[in-house]
Amino acid sequence: MSFRSLIQEMRDEFGSISRHSLRSRSHRGGGGAPRVAAVGPAEAAAMQQSCWAQLPPELLREVLVRIEESEVWWPSRRDVVACAGVCRSWRGITKEIVRVPEASGKLTFPISLKQPGPRDGTLKCFIRRNRTTQTYYLYIGLTEALADDGKFLLAARKCRKPTCTDYLISLDMSDMSKGSNTYIGKLRSNFLGTKFTVYDAHPPYDGAVVSKSRSARVVGLNQVSPRVPAGNYPVSHISYELNVLGARGPRRMNCIMDSIPASAVQEGGKAPTQTEFPLSGLDSFPSISFFRSKSARIDSATSQLSTQKEEKLVLKNKSPRWHEQLQCWCLNFRGRVTVASVKNFQLVASDENGPTNQEQDKVILQFGKIGKDLFSMDYRYPISAFQSFAICLSSFDTKIACAG
């Protein structure tokens, strides 16, 4: 039997268990009862009786290790996720085997989007823009092409307000409201579109302080489930240099990463790494093709940023060079950008974060245009996919006081 057949058999078996349980609960509690994320007694008993849950741990670990090593890119990574969804024992061992993106260079579970990217190399993604609905979708490429079908990662929706603009970021492309269980953060701009703040809905490190903004106070129980600890934790501040006279040249931007210490870009440096989402409705969202997490644990070795008052990481855009023949400003995007645009940028660590320029030459995030509504986004350690996406969204916003 092939592995795909085995996975399909497991899905069918546990799918029938789940459907039987749901029918039983609907007969008992009526159609209006809310969906319960926890596994019921009937489901638990059925899982314990399943042959898949009774595999010897040594054999199970060997099988899962081989599967994890053989499945590198999406969509094949879905087999690893499927294994984690079989039962509790499978999930526990899969979580132990799958390494964070920093070490593996792979995105597997939803929490991977909040974890720093790989140290060696970059994760190559792209963003699709829908002008009509003012929505933006982040995908990770499945091939070496600039853009393909891709694996969906995150979505954002632009919300205009009288004095600012919000970009709500979600794990679900069909529901990008702040009251959604899949809401994970937002980007907020000032009126001029020159200053932005990235907010995480979950604490990025131990001791993180929630912002006391007006938006945090107006969210009521009717909008957000009591089980979802939605908050506004500032993780980055982005500013664009004022250019009211429209001087020739690209935009100049500066990013202060509140949740990342400056030492993270140095050899042996560490950035805070979230390991699981807080207990929330993510447990009951079947549309997210990742497995569920239960608690909000953060790597304790890197979670003392607030108490140590360590210097924060500062990113700035890499200075382009003027090309006399082309008569334009140029950056080396290594084939990942094909269309000239004022939105294109590369971010490196500021000189403030180190005595030498060795680290500052390493591009941490690059963003550029490859089509009318198509943009590439490549990122690496110490920032995450969520932070990178939010920073790139700031480039889309209208900037009254900046050229372009």
Task: Give a concise summary.
It contains nine helices and 14 strands. It is an alpha+beta fold and 404 residues long. Among the domains are: 49 residues; 213 residues, Tubby Protein, Chain A.
Task: Record the SSE blueprint.
Elements: H1 3-29, H2 41-49, H3 57-70, H4 78-84, H5 88-97, H6 101-104, E1 123-130, E2 135-140, E3 151-160, E4 165-170, E5 183-189, E6 195-200, H7 214-218, E7 233-240, E8 253-261, H8 305-308, E9 312-317, E10 321-323, E11 328-330, E12 345-349, E13 365-371, E14 374-379, H9 385-396
Antiparallel strand pairs: 1-2, 1-14, 2-3, 3-4, 4-5, 5-6, 6-7, 7-8, 8-9, 9-12, 10-11, 12-13, 13-14
Helix pairs in contact: 1-2, 3-5, 4-5
Q: Determine the N-to-C terminus distance.
A: 58 Å
> Might you state the CATH topology name of the domain at 114-209 and 230-242 and 250-266 and 309-395?
Tubby Protein, Chain A
Structural class: alpha+beta
How many β-strand stretches? 14
Q: Rounded to an integer, what's the Rg over CA atoms?
A: 22 Å
What is the CATH level 1 assignment of the domain at 114-209 and 230-242 and 250-266 and 309-395? Answer: Alpha Beta
Major beta sheet, specifics? 12 strands, antiparallel, barrel
- The largest sheet has its strands arranged as 1-2-3-4-5-6-7-8-9-12-13-14
- Mean pLDDT, rounded to whole units? 77
Indicate the proportion of strand residues.
15-25%
Level of helix content?
10-25%
